[in-house]
Amino acid sequence: MSFIRPGHRAEQLVDELCITSAADLDVEAIAFDQGVEVRYEALNGCEATLVGYDTKAIATIRRATSRGRERFSVAHEIGHWLLHRGRSFRCRVDDIVQNYSSEVALEKEADEFASHLLMPTNILRPIIKSLSKPTLQDLQRVANDFDVSLQAMSIRLAALDILPVIVACYGHNGLKWFSRASHVPSKWRLKRLLDEDSFAYDILNDRVEGNKSGKQSADAWFENDDADDFELLESSMPSVSGQVLVMLYLNDIEMFERGYSHYAKKG
Ligand SMILES: [Zn+2]
């Protein structure tokens, strides 16, 4: 049995439906086309459910304050319907990041499907390529165009692997999650707790209102001893639940060369 990546399956569907712009990514219309009726209800204890009967399914989605969140849930349930036919689902996770780090393979597959359905590579890539060293504010505008959350867009950006970025989320207890473009050397290890010199620290501790972006010493972000040899671009923004979302843009090519030579010596 051949296995098609869930993201690839989602992008195939976008192609089949001849969707070529973010504005045409109508997730309810896609659901309808695939035999899924979408209902919105005030669900308790779960984000969405999927119940299938023969060739039809009903996806029940919890009303959310964010439209991006609702759209992601609909896309996630379409993913279950197309990838995991014959089962019913009760998706209890309340944000994509919990799914993202969870052990539940089917939930991860549905999330990957949703991420690619709402942000297909062929539509997103040229938009990202047109941006020069984007900040989170720039990325927020792209997220708005795609009607997805900034968090979902930032994770998708790292997965696209066309910009030298690491995105991460910190709370008062430290690092919640991070996602790194795969060409960024993994030798650069994020600090578990925010450094007092980071803009993110100022935002989390209410020393700065709103967003802050600019040049930053890599030493403020990485545990590595040689981090103070480098500068990067930090863009930080307040996020949900008193957390802060961070995008680090590694614009110093030396950080890549140093990383790879380090590997070579080890290997
Ligand atoms: Zn699910």
From TrEMBL:
Tree of life domain: Bacteria
Pfam families: Peptidase_M78
Domain (IrrE N-terminal-like) ranges: 33-157
PANTHER family per the UniProt record, alphabetical: ANTITOXIN HIGA1, BLL7220 PROTEIN
Name of protein: Uncharacterized protein DUF955
